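Researcher: Quick one. two chains, 620 residues in total.
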Amino acid sequence: MKNTVEIRWHGRGGQGAKTAALLLADVAFKTGCCVQGFPEYGPERMGAPITAFNRISEEKIRVHSNIYDPDYVVVVDETLLHSVHVTDGLKEDGAIIVNTAKSAKEIRPLLRGYKGRVLTVDARHISEKMLGRNFPNTPMLAATAAATGIMSREKFLREMEASFAHKFAKKPEVIRGNMAALEMAYDKAEIDMMRTTGNSSGKKAGKSSKEMKRSA
Amino acid sequence: MSRENVMKSRAIPERMSGNEAVSFAIRQVNPDVMPAFPITPSTEIPQMVSTFIANGEIDTEFIPVESEHSAMSAAIGAEAAGARTMTATSSAGLALMWEELLLAASNRLPIVLTLVNRTLSGPININCDHSDGMGARDTGWIQIYAENNQEAYDNYIQAFPIAEDPRVHLPVMICQDGFITSHAVENIELLEDAPVKAFVGEYEPEEFLLNPGKPVSVGPYSVSAYAMEAKKAQEAAMERAGEVILEVGECFGKMSGRSYGFFEEYRTEDAEYLMIIMGSAAGTAKAAVDLLREEGHKVGVLKLRVFRPFPEKEIAEAISRSGCRAVAIMDRCESYNGCSGPLGSEIPAGLYRNKVMTQTVNYIYGLAGRDFTVDHVRDIFAELEEVAQGTMKAPNHKYIGLRE
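Model:
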C-alpha cells in the first residue's frame, strides 16, 4: 500500500501496548487519517509477549493481515529484545523505538544486525517521574508519534489532551502528569530523530554498530 | 420499512471496532429483547448493550442466561410472543444453540443473531475462522458475511427488514470475523439515528402468541402427513429471501450511499483469474489485486456477502460474464469430507448446474486465526495462471500458509 505507515508494537501482557496502538489509531483518526489499530490475540496472560499493530494511511486501508515489514517497531519492554526477534522485517529506512534507560549504542548489539535508526526512551523513568507510577505506554505513544511524524507536535498534544479529559473525567488531577510525560517523551524522540537524520543515515549508524558488534 | 420514501442520512465519520459498530447499530435499532451469554470474541456486544440499557439510552429487556442453549430458547420465546429479539454469540456458543437454531427457523421467527466468527474446538483456540457459521449453514438461517466494521454495521441494520418481511419470516445471522474485524479499530461512517430507526421501522408481526384476539400455537407436533409441507414452505421462504435481500440492499443505498447485493465484484470485468472469498480476507485479496493489476496481471475478486440463501446462479453468471480462465475458491473452514471446504463444493456444483465449465481450485486458509496475507494471494494467482496454462496440475483442497 502506498502512503501507508505500518507500525508493530511489542510488549508484555498488561503493559498497555494494545491500548497504545488503539490510542495512536484514535489520535491519527482525529487528524484526518485512515487508520487501523489491532492486537494479535494469543493465550493472553500477564507478562506474556504480545504484539499489536497500526496502519496509518491517507487512503482507505483494506489489508487485514498482521504486519511483517513494518516501517517502525516499538518495544515497550526491553527484556523482549532477548527473546523475540523484534526487528524481523523492519525497514532499514524506518526506526526502532525502545523503552530503556540505556543508549541507542548499548541497545544496537541486541538488534540482530538492524542497520536503521535506533531511538531510546526511558519511559519508565518519565512515567514514574511525571505520574508517580510505571505506565510505559503513554511515553512510548508520544515517542512513536514523534518518530513517525504522522502529525505535528501541537496536533498530537491537543488531541491527546482531549482524550485524557474524556478518559479521566473523574480524576482530572492526573491529566497534567500524563501531558507532561507525553511532552517529555515526544521531545526526546524528536531530538533523537533529528540527530540520526542529521547523520543522514540509519545506514551509517548501522555500520558503526556492526563494527561495535565485531569488537564485542 | 418503507421502500419508497427512504430518509437520507448524513455520514458520521468515526473509528471503532466491529463489536462497537454492531453495538452502535443495536443502540439505534433498540430491539425489545436481548438474551445473551458471553463468549469470546463476541462478549463485548452484550457488555456494551448492557451499558446502553444501564444508561437509559435504550429500553431493551436484557435476559442474562446460563448458556447459549438458553439464550436461543429465550430468543425463540420472546420473538414468538411478538417482541423484536436479537442475540450475539461465537464458536462453541453457536454450536450449543444448534437445536434451537433449527426451531427458530422452522417456526419462522425473524430473530437477528450477530455472529462473531471464531473457530470450533479442537484444538481449543479463540481466533477466527468460519467453522461456526458454516456448521450452521443448513439450519435455515439467512447468513450475511462482512469484510470490515462498516459492512458489519450496515448488514446489521439491514437484517431486521430482511428477517421481518412477510415474504421471508426467517432468522438472520450477521457474521463478522472474530478479532480481525471485531477487535480492530478502523474508520467507519455511521448513520444518524432517525433515518436508521425509520429504515428498520416498528416491528408489527401478523401473528404472535400474546395476541388474545388471534390465538396461535407455535412449535406443535406435526404428523408426517403435514410436516413435509411445512419444510417446503420454509424452503420457499429462503428462495424468496433473495429478492428481499436485494430490495433492502438497494434501499439501504438510498439512505447511506452504500448499496449491497449478494456479492461484490472487484475488478472482475476483464479478469482472467478470479478469487472467490468471504469476510475480512476479501480486503486483503483486493489490495493484492490492485498490486497485481499494476504489474499487468488481469485478476479480480468476487467477495461473497450472502451465503444463505446461496446465490449459485448469480455466481455462475458472474464467472461466465468475466470470461475468466480459472477461479480460486477460498474456504476459511474445513468440511472434513476428504475433498473440499463448503464453498469448494457448493460453487462448483452451481457452476455445473448452470453449465459454466470454468476450472476451479479450492483452497483452505486462515483456520483458527492463521494469518492470510497479500503474499498468499499473489501465490494463489500465480498458481492459477500455471494451472490454466497447463504447466501445473490443478491442486485441490490445498492448504495455504501451513507450517512445513
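The mean pLDDT of chain B is 97.
Researcher: Thanks, that's what I needed.
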